[in-house]
Design goal:
The protein contains 24 helices and 13 strands. The longest helix has 31 residues. The chain is elongated, with a radius of gyration of 32 Å.
């Protein structure tokens, strides 16, 4: 063994000083009766097999092979095994979650009360807690539980009942003192790691599941924090008859003893399934007695791990013997009979949605998500705060670079440049929204997998929450830059500018939502959004006038480039009803020199339409173009919705 007996003895002594779990369960008097499970008496599975392509040989490789098990109400099962043993894959299979993308074949029969159930029914009965739970850092603990409750229960639940349930869970998980503490953001410290794990579990329990799956709930925590998390969970499960299945890696002795049952895996095969109290007797019976003063979990993991064994051949032979010993044992036979027995008793009747708690409707879910997004939007500066600061700085810079441009023809090109810069770079800066939507997407994936809401509710609420912020950003930017640069000084022209800037930002943010839905990676999304904006800038009509633009870019990209419509209508807004003074003639005999031909050339003036004629722009199409912009926005959102629907 790699650890000395002295070290293990010290750990055993420290673990022994911790309170007895059974005493804690009896002493806890909390109000969590709403969690009581009277529906699910057992969950069982038989012959779970998953085969994937090998990484090197490309030949089929079994991740799981004929794994069976059964857990009854009020019991906690530990899935344990070395890295690569298949415990996370098994957990995902049991929870009806996606299997590895390289999967060739998989078979899995999961029975609730001995009966099969539809995926929707099973999701309504169960919840899954990720290893890295996607909590919203700008919410408090109480708010996190409140919104989880609202997303999972209808409005028939009174405010008093909801508060009582939340208070009961806060007490159950020892979070009463942290109820009004923020979860924590990158720039604002919040809960500790152990407290976050407890909040993650509590946020799933508030939805009143009957079966709870946890992926490495103690990963990254010290032994004391790990014990706390599992002890709180054990108390809730025992009081309310919940079924808890957790994958766990090398728990301390005290944490290991909190579990009722153990499923030990190695190379995808079962090596033990039974009560934790039966482990010592079983391994003594097959000639591998547990040493005294040694963490039993660590001993078992070393026993079935061949990756770091000194004598690889001998270790693999021992593993084969251990697996054969299990298959031939009386406990394995009893497990098979137990699984068959619950299936026989059920009569093969499929479990239905009857009696299962109904979820809120679409409008109720959208409203709840809107309220949550609003809190996040003003507390987390990453969402809109940083963007407001960026746009403010951009407005000041633009207004002072293009400062008080005159109505002489020398200002025409600078005004055109300012229009392009203001619209194009406002759109480009939408890349700052990528990290905020990535967090929203991660939260959505977790909550969607747990059956709380779907892509429709996410896309609608995300679109609605952005409208007021994007309008205020457009207004703030325009108030500063528009008047400093001396664009057409009329109220109607100003608000027309604001309208097109707002539509520009609305389309740019919709593009971010689509790209981030496709590529849920910060670096990739940032690169793709930046590239797309660079493309839109190149073909919107400023860099190359529409009349001479390459036909490929004109017909493939130009006509659905939202920046094209923004630039065109801002140009019309500035030049259609304005005149500019021509320059003095460079030679004697001429009155003046006009850069652009127009109907006022004889008066040494340039009609703004003369500038627009160079781009083939004409007024009168604003209503049509607004409709096209809205179609582009809706198209981006529908595409994002479709991506999220397909990438389940």
């Amino acid at each position: 063994m790699s650890c000395s007996s002295e070290t293990m003895a010290t750990q055993q002594t420290m673990d022994a000083r911790k309170p007895s779990p059974s005493v804690d369960v009896e002493k806890q008097e909390v109000n969590d009766d709403h969690l009581r499970n009277t529906t699910v008496q057992s969950i069982s599975w038989r012959d779970v097999t998953v085969t994937v392509k090998g990484r090197e040989t490309k030949l089929p490789k079994a991740i799981l092979s004929d794994v069976s098990g059964i857990v009854h109400a009020g019991e906690i099962l530990a899935l344990m095994g070395p890295s690569g043993s298949g415990k996370t894959t098994l957990l995902n299979m049991l929870a009806s979650r996606p299997v590895p993308s390289s999967t060739i074949d998989s078979t899995c029969t999961v029975l609730v009360n001995g009966s099969k159930s539809s995926k929707s029914t099973f999701r309504s009965l169960s919840r899954f807690v990720e290893q890295e739970d996607a909590l919203i850092g700008s919410l408090t603990v109480r708010e996190t539980l409140t919104f989880a409750s609202r997303l999972s229960s209808t409005n028939s639940l009174s405010k008093r009942e909801r508060i009582a349930r939340i208070d009961g869970l806060l007490d159950s998980f020892g979070l009463r003192d942290q109820a009004d503490t923020l979860i924590g953001t990158p720039i604002r410290k919040g809960l500790s790691g152990g407290q976050k794990r407890r909040v993650g579990v509590a946020s799933q329990l508030i939805t009143a599941p009957k079966i709870l799956f946890l992926d490495e709930p103690t990963s990254g925590l010290d032994s004391a924090a790990s014990w706390e998390v599992m002890n709180y969970l054990r108390g809730v499960a025992k009081r309310n008859g919940l079924i808890v299945i957790a994958s766990i890696h090398q728990p301390s002795t005290a944490t290991f003893n909190l579990f009722d049952k153990l499923l030990l895996l190695s190379q995808g095969k079962t090596h033990f399934f039974g009560g934790v109290t039966e482990v010592e007797q079983y391994y003594t019976g097959i000639g591998y007695a547990l040493p005294m003063h040694v963490n039993p979990a660590e001993y078992l993991l070393e026993l079935v791990n061949v990756d770091f064994a000194r004598g690889r051949g001998g270790a693999e032979e021992r593993l084969i013997q251990l697996q054969r010993a299990w298959e031939e044992s009386g406990m394995a036979e009893e497990l098979r009979r137990a699984v068959e027995r619950v299936e026989t008793q059920s009569g093969g009747v499929e479990l239905t949605d009857d009696g299962v708690k109904k979820h809120p409707g679409t409008m109720s879910l959208v409203w709840t998500l809107l309220r949550r997004a609003f809190i996040k939007s003003y507390r987390d500066v990453v969402v809109y705060g940083i963007r407001v600061a960026m746009y403010f700085g951009l407005a000041v810079m633009m207004g002072t670079v293009w400062l008080r441009l005159s109505t002489e023809q020398s200002s025409i090109i600078p005004l055109t440049n300012a229009i392009f810069y203001g619209s194009a770079f406002m759109s480009f800066m939408a890349v700052a929204y990528v990290p905020a939507f990535l967090e929203d997407r991660q939260t959505y994936v977790k909550e969607h997998e747990n059956g709380l809401y779907g892509a429709t509710e996410l896309i609608i609420s995300n679109f609605l929450i952005g409208i007021p912020y994007l309008f205020l950003i457009s207004l703030l930017f325009s108030i500063i830059s528009y008047w400093l640069s001396n664009f057409q000084p009329t109220a109607s022209a100003f608000f027309t500018w604001v309208l097109w800037l707002f539509l520009d930002l609305l389309a740019a943010e919709s593009l971010v939502v689509l790209v981030t839905s496709i590529f849920p990676s910060f670096v990739i999304s940032l690169a793709v959004v930046a590239f797309a904006n660079g493309l839109w800038m190149s073909v919107d009509g400023f860099m190359v006038q529409p009349g001479i633009l390459n036909v490929f870019y004109k017909y493939v990209f130009h006509y659905w480039d939202y920046q094209k419509y923004v630039f065109e209508n801002m140009m019309i807004n500035e030049f259609a009803h304005r005149t500019y003074e021509c320059a003095p003639a460079p030679t004697e005999g001429d009155n003046c020199f006009c850069m652009f031909p127009s109907k006022f050339a004889g008066e040494c003036k340039i009609a703004g339409q003369g500038v627009l004629d160079q781009y083939n722009y004409h007024p009168g199409k604003q209503g049509r173009d607004v409709g096209i912009m809205m179609a582009i926005v809706v198209g981006y959102r529908l595409a994002a919705w479709l991506v999220l629907k397909l990438r389940r």
